[in-house]
Predict the 3D structure of the following.
Amino acid sequence: MKITVVGAGNVGATCADVLAYREIANEVVLVDIKEGVAEGKALDIWQKAPINLYDTRTVGSTNDYSKTAGSDVVVITSGLPRKPGMTRDDLIETNAGIVKSVTDNVVKHSPEAIIIVVSNPLDVMTYQAHLSSKLPRTKVMGMAGILDTARYRAFLAEALNVSPKDIQAVLMGGHGDTMVPLPRYTTVGGIPVTELIEKDKLDAIIERTKTGGGELVKLMGTSAWYAPGSAAAQMAEAIVKDQRRVFPVCVKLEGEYGIDNCYLGVPVILGKNGIEKIIELDLNDEEKALLNTSRDHVKEVMDVLDKLNSK
Ligand SMILES: NC(=O)C1=CN([C@@H]2O[C@H](COP(=O)(O)OP(=O)(O)OC[C@H]3O[C@@H](n4cnc5c(N)ncnc54)[C@H](O)[C@@H]3O)[C@@H](O)[C@H]2O)C=CC1
Ligand SMILES: O=C([O-])CC(=O)C(=O)O
């Protein structure tokens, strides 16, 4: 199995490292436009193999996509991260151009690859990759839900003083402040979370989750990478190992949840064909209203992208 990661910055290099040390693929190719950066980081990860004991070969490339040929999965992390005071949507113009040219190159050399987009604004960059690649919706998806649920689960584990391993949760919607955490589908060792925590505390955790990316941007002056890189690697693993894992993933909805032609995070089964199935939950009126608000926001930004592409 061969996985390419485009963008050897904070998220891309972390993702490549996780893919390598967990031996998720035989070969990981790291690509960046900046001369030498991908080669250097790939070499550094390869030199860690004798210490951390793994066989995955890591190869770097400065914009030479011939090295990526025949990839099974391609993770796109290239693009600007936001700085304090910016929203993810502020990145649209620069990152759309980057995602477009990267996707064109990826598809030329790996027409069978499944594409996982990480660049922001996530839902709309996934739409851009879909437009450029012309691949079916099962093969172009975005990573956000695993990260957003991980933040929610980590905050809950801290508040309840339990292992994060035992917290299961679903979160839907766009990757932004309109995301929709679902307490009704959150359990701790199988126990509904609402039986273990007061409503005001849970509400505060939900609010912190929604702005979880921004919290880190404020602290570091740039956005997060350890959890995002690991989350993208987990999606790639589910695909190359055909694990049929159930994750929230950004995918094009075509009527599911009563929503058409919109990229949003929903629970799916992830396996060797990419999106094997979209799981449709029976949402209550309040949850549906929150999801529709999120849809409206993502649709607005998709319209901005359409205008940029028609210039
Ligand atoms: N979906 C999500 O949940 C998350 C998304 N992100 C997004 O991921 C993206 C990357 O973030 P970081 O790694 O922190 O940024 P970074 O600045 O550390 O790395 C980005 C890399 O992309 C490279 N690049 C730019 N144009 C390129 C091109 N045309 N071809 C190849 N490489 C190119 C840059 O040279 C740089 O090395 C950002 O857009 C950020 O907002 C970050 C965290 C979570
Ligand atoms: O906040 C950002 O800009 C990066 C991101 O998407 C996240 O960490 O959730």
Residues 283 and 289 are 9 Å apart (CA to CA). The chain has a mean pLDDT of 98. The first strand starts at residue 2 and ends at 6. Residues 6-12, 31-34, 37, 77-82, 91, 95, 98, 101-102, 118-120, 122, 143-144, 147, 175, 222-225, 228 surround NAI (ligand 1) (CB under 6 Å).
